[in-house]
Amino acid sequence: MPTLEKVKVTETQFTMNYVNELYESVKKRNPHEVEFHQAVKEVLESLIPVLEKHPHYIKQGILERMVEPERMISFRVPWVDDYGYVQVNRGYRVQFNSAIGPYKGGLRFHPTVNSSIIKFLGFEQIFKNSLTGQPIGGGKGGSDFNPKGKSNTEVMRFTQSFMTELCKYIGPDTDVPAGDIGVGAREIGYLFGQYKKIQGAFTAGVLTGKGLGYGGSIGRKEATGYGTVYFVEEMLKDKGLGFKESTVVISGSGNVSIYAMEKAIQLGATVVACSDSNGYIYDKRGIDLTTVKRLKEVEGKRISEYVDEHPSAEYTEGCKEIWSIPCDIALPCATQNEIDEHAAKLLVSNGVQAVGEGANMPSTLQAVDFFLENNVLFGPAKAANAGGVSVSALEMAQNSARLSWSFEEVDLKLQQIMKKIYQDSMTAAKEYSNPGNLVVGANIAGFIKVADAMVEQGVI
Ligand code: GLU
């Protein structure tokens, strides 16, 4: 007769074997998709205690279903450049999971986009969207088109061609794209115009991140960056800390980064560094956000030009070493895997207290482990950057009701959503014996809602 302790070890071993086998089959079925493997590995490992407690998820094949997209669409995007030459890019849309709502997630236009990037982003979006408490499923899309160096008319022609194919698969109750890297207000405008022309109808709810004059939500632009800071504020508050008088390093200088800087500064922090894909700027007296906004949002210039106007700042070519700058709070808001173990070690040795992921999966698995082992407060992307998609869901609600809310209303709702995500993640982490671990907590809280909806809807 095995002792109770032995039975427990055997059960844990069984679940671990199940998860390992599933992970191996994901690798085999999706060869070379390393970013997708990374995202799946993190989630599967977090779910071991849930599967032990609720083995019916195993019998129902919930995880096998979750790691396989409901649909992965890939298509040719031909367009004519300014010299009259035909160019061809590849477009994608992954419709990953619709258990709790229409597929929802951004479009990324960047030369690094491939099926692995789109699938890791779409997979993460399932859990992130569930955490928001809004009725939205998981999706993502994009193209390997590089908007950098393209004229406005080239971007328009590419974007129209992209939508000419994408429009067959989306709609306000089926799949609602938005922006991501390389897709901002301008691209959303062209996408919306082309969709409207093809459909012959003004369907506001088909895209989010729209301009304020044609169905966009006030506060959407700021939402991801503000949301990340609201989330980190909750983590800090629990330890009696705050942004006030803290030193902050924020990578990137796109939409997420700019509004994370804005909110951190409003809360009394000094933001000493930010970056773009070429390099980073550092000014220990604090970065002047008005200049960054003008250079990036209005003039489309490189961050290196900042030092021409602010000689007290230093510019360094290359992005990796931004994490060698001593800070209390680090907010990676640029791109995936920008913090590796080396960067994590630098941050920890310089005394970082909190890390909040504004970008999607900006820390490698080794970096995350290192932060957790060293008791750094760590806000994972699925939770910390969920503010953007949350306000997208609020935009959908306003479009359905044909009305618009004020900035104060949207911002208050965003703050409430970020607080709730923090509390739900903390509660789940505690319930499943990993108190304080928000990586595990966010994955579990996001998972359970989707898994239960899948069970209730039968084998589909
Ligand atoms: N691209 C954003 C994200 O990663 C926003 C998605 C959306 O608003 O649908 O969550």
What binds here, in terms of ligands, is: glutamic acid
Provide the CATH topology of the domain at 221-379. Rossmann fold
Q: Span between N and C termini?
A: 41 Å
The percentage of residues in β strands lies in: 5-15%
Placed side by side, the strands forming the largest sheet appear as: 9-8-7-6-10-11-12
Determine the mean pLDDT: 97
**Could you give a short account of the major beta sheet?**
7 strands, mixed
Order of helices and strands: HHHHHEEEHEHEHHEHEEHHEEHEHEHHHH
Q: In percent, how helical is the residue content? A: 40-55%
What is the CATH architecture assignment of the domain at 221-379? Answer: 3-Layer(aba) Sandwich
Rounded to the nearest angstrom, the radius of gyration is 22 Å
CATH class of the domain at 221-379: Alpha Beta
Strand tally, please? 12
Structure, described:
- The structure is a single chain.
- The chain is α/β, with parallel strands linked by helices.
- Among the domains are: 71-203, 3-Layer(aba) Sandwich (Rossmann fold); 221-379, NAD(P)-binding Rossmann-like Domain (Rossmann fold).
- The protein is 49% helix and 15% strand.
- It is built from 18 helices and 12 strands.
- The strands form 2 sheets. A 7-stranded mixed β-sheet has the order 9-8-7-6-10-11-12, sandwiched between helices.
- A hairpin with a 5-residue loop joins β1 (71-80) and β2 (86-97).
- The chain is globular and about 65 Å long.
- The two termini are 41 Å apart.
- The mean pLDDT is 97.
- Bound molecules: glutamic acid.
- Glutamic acid (GLU) binds at residues 104-106, 178, 180, 208, 360, 388-389, 392.
